[in-house]
Predict the 3D structure of the following.
Amino acid sequence: MPARFELGLAEGRLRLAWPAAASLDSIVATCQTADGTRHEGEGWRSRDGAFECACGPLTVRLTFRGGRAARIRLRGTARQNCEIVALGVAARLEFQADSATWWVYNGYQSWDAADVVPAGGARPSYWTAAVADADGRALVMAARSAARLVTRFDLKSGRLAMTQGAAPGPLEARPHWTARRGQLWRGEDLVLQLVDDVWDGLAELSEQVFGPRRRRGDSPPRRVPQGWLSWYHYGTWVTREDVLQNAGILADGALAGLGYDQVLVDDGWQEAYGDWIPNRKFDPSLGDLAARLIRRGQVPGLWIAPFLVSTGSDLALHGPADWFLSDPSGGGRLIDPVHVSFGPMYVLDARRRRVQDHLERTFAGLREQGFRHFKIDFLYAGAYPGVRALRDGLRAIRRGARDGYLCASGAPLLPLAGLVDGCRIGQDTATPLYDFEKGEPVCRIFGDEVLWIARNTACRHFLDRWFQLDPDAALVGANLTVEQARQLVTVVALAGGPFFATDDLARLAPERLALLTNPEVQALVGGPPARPDWDPTAHPLAAVWRRDDVLAAFNWAGPARQLVIEAPPRRPVRDLWNRVEVEFGVGDLELKLPPSGVHLLKFEGAGRLRAWLE
């Protein structure tokens, strides 16, 4: 059992320690003012069960609660009128380890990387983080809420900084607190805990978050959606006919009876960003399309980017001026820096009540037409004016969508807990393009997208306490090899969240279609997320993942490998991909893994038995 923490104060120096294991030494308060000046605290004093110090224009107050886990509450009082950009604490981290230490970092939003890297680098981590040794013993840390502020963790040259402020983006350097003398600033609570298992520790902390979607012991969550979405094959060139053709295959073709009942029309249906009405490709109406799908017993879904507005849209030309964020550098409306080339786009300011009303009306109208699944994209833009604005906007969207499923994308992670049903946790699977020679859309992989998606899924699996985890679509066509496609489908099936096909289903070769129609693999969809073995030296990613009585082994890179499992003899082992019983005699179970291969096995004790690649 990990030790309880202890506090020490000597000559103004504050120390938080788990004896003989880890400590934060010489803790200092930090703040940054609007003129760019960075201040550090001048020495702590004990007062009324807390610790106080002067830090620039502020008096900072720290309180500690808990036993094994240290819950830290940070407050600041303005000693003069001031503008604060960020406030936090920093300390020298001492972590007792017999081996190298590792930094488990988490990106700010859906598409940002999450990974395990050697400790001490320059990788910032948002919302959660951990320092761990080769055996998985770790100091884990997390923000307990994100109602108003973004929490960032940095570990550089042995110094751990925990900072709270505005969302990353074009307004990040602006003050999030304009204070008058005597006013109080309240931070988001932090929690740090020493644990024997890094993944268990991060899962435990994520469960403590304000407003989680579910906790252990709660009533069952809503069903995980499964279906088809248009984006990766058709891109913005999708038509009504494309949607109906693929929906027909879900209902009456090779995928019938396997749970694929959702049909999601992605980007390309709308007149313009901001003008969420159908273009001529979707005549006679969206309502007519939704009605046809509903008659088949299917759930209609739509993609929408609620906070972005095309500069040429009717809303941009005729909407109220105060609905849009202003550019602090030159006046006028802010252009989203992510969409300078593919745009440009203005950004709605969800701090405005009339903008919230507009969002509610937009989603209520789509819900009235029969749509019950909404993929809401580019949500990072909604947080530019602050996390509170994003959350207020999402509450308005929820009021309009009512019981509709909300799946977020491009989204800051922790602020969405309790407000959405699902959330993307990785980058896009592929890129849709238009082949002008053939006169049709195509889908292409340009790099290590499968590996990137797998890495984020592995390093964010514990966030299922916040929302259902969406790694992205189960692409099986394009220029993937069949083995790569099988790896991707395995990752998506084991993530525990939405499972969507995305190819032109009518043109899939039989061996690729079979990857989407294996009932034993499909039975895994919607279960708890698989957890990778703690293997920080594995390149490029841990090879063995486990979930209950299921074990997956991936050969991510390089030549053929051998999977070895210390499985007791006479124990039935089911190969889920090949749908056969694996025969083996006395000794270890050994199976060949081809390049980019995956084995998906089900047997009693799969979560406990030793397994590795040779």
Summary: The two ends are 33 Å apart (CA to CA). Residues 211-219 have pLDDT under 50 and may be disordered. Residues 6-206 form one domain.
